[in-house]
Amino acid sequence: MQVEPKRDVIEALLSFWNPTNNVFRFSNFEMTPTLEEIAGFTGFGVRLHHQRLIAPRGISINKFFQHLNICKVKEQSLDKGWISLQFLYDRYEKEDGFKKFGRTLNNKGNFETWKEHRRFAFMVAFLGTMVFPRRGGKINILLTGVVNVLIEKKNYTIVPMILADIYRALTVCQKGKRFFEGCNILLQLWIVEHLYRSLTVARFIQDRSDYITSHAKRVEKYRCPEGVNAWVEHFRLLTEDKITWNYPWFPWVEVIHMSSVRPFLLLMGIRGVQPYVPLRVLRQLGRRQVLPITEDMKDFVSEVGPEVPLPEGLAQRIWDGCLVMGIGTMVKERHTGETHPEYSNWLEQQPQLQVRPERSVKEPIDHEAEMKIKIELAMRDYLAENQELRANLELARAVLTQQQVEFEEERAKAIQRETSLRGQVDLATIRGTQVAELAVSRQQQLRTCD
């Protein structure tokens, strides 16, 4: 959750994805995320090859509410197989949920029980938003069954499911779908650590270290390209001698032994089944790259649906069969980058990648860079407009000040004129009074003379 997502590197990788064998095809080599690498990142890989596969079986609405300890309520999205993050957030994020939804939660009013149920809800929400995301924040209700298995049954692994959905997301996005329904953060960590040339030697020992939190520190000196176009050009120029084939922290010493009959596994994901062919990328596992058996794996890809049942039994038998045949011996010597003498010729003879749809590969748009440019332009326009508004405001204030000065001057003149007029009126009144008095006096004098 602390890793900054780089969507441009994911989009650039799509141009190099080969869905026939679920590998990235670069100039003179192939790579793919492996079970061992994903398990190492997540910390879920101790005795990975001795664990059983989790099957994303169908979950009824009643079972969904039972797993989450919620009384049955009307929620239309459940009929479509998903629930919103807000649905879980309202009930289990804060204590308000315990108080507000207490009557619809199966905790008998016990706060400690609610907190236990809250952990389960958080696991479902985390997997549904970070590991198995769907557009619009829709969380697949099948994840409640997956979380229940992880809690109740300790000998099961979720790593194949994570990898299967990453493979599927790469394929469907290569065909033009815009939303990556896989764990893009793990895919990003995987490729960046292979691109960074570390001087540290791989240890090949098992431990329980957290390799996600420490990722940023390990690759802090690596300068990532910026934008889709820059990443695509970087991948086009990439050669096998520029790759860190084994992570410095790579802890795995075992690789499933593959028979000549079935040189692959079937990985069951949330949305379907994907083939896994580690023989094509043995250098990532500290082994010498041999010539892999060439087979079109697309025939083993299937989408789970009402009419397409999950081949759970077949996938589990292949997985278990590899365990019966035995696990590879401990890595005693590193074979970093070593290949069979004919490997280069073999790779050149493999079919070239199909061009992605024109709308998503011709003149690739750097969405992240484009967005940054738009933000910068918007900010520039905002600052210019803000500066213009400030200038207009200052001008308006100056005009207002000038008008106030002129108003005060006119007011003073008006007061002065008013005072003068009042003086004249008073003088005229006095004179009028005097004239009247004089007239009265003259009339009296005339009467006296008569």
Automatic annotation (TrEMBL):
Keywords: Coiled coil. Pfam families: PMD (PF10536). The keyword Coiled coil applies. It comes from the Eukaryota. Residues 5-294 form the Aminotransferase-like plant mobile domain. Residues 372-418 form a coiled coil. This is Aminotransferase-like plant mobile domain-containing protein.
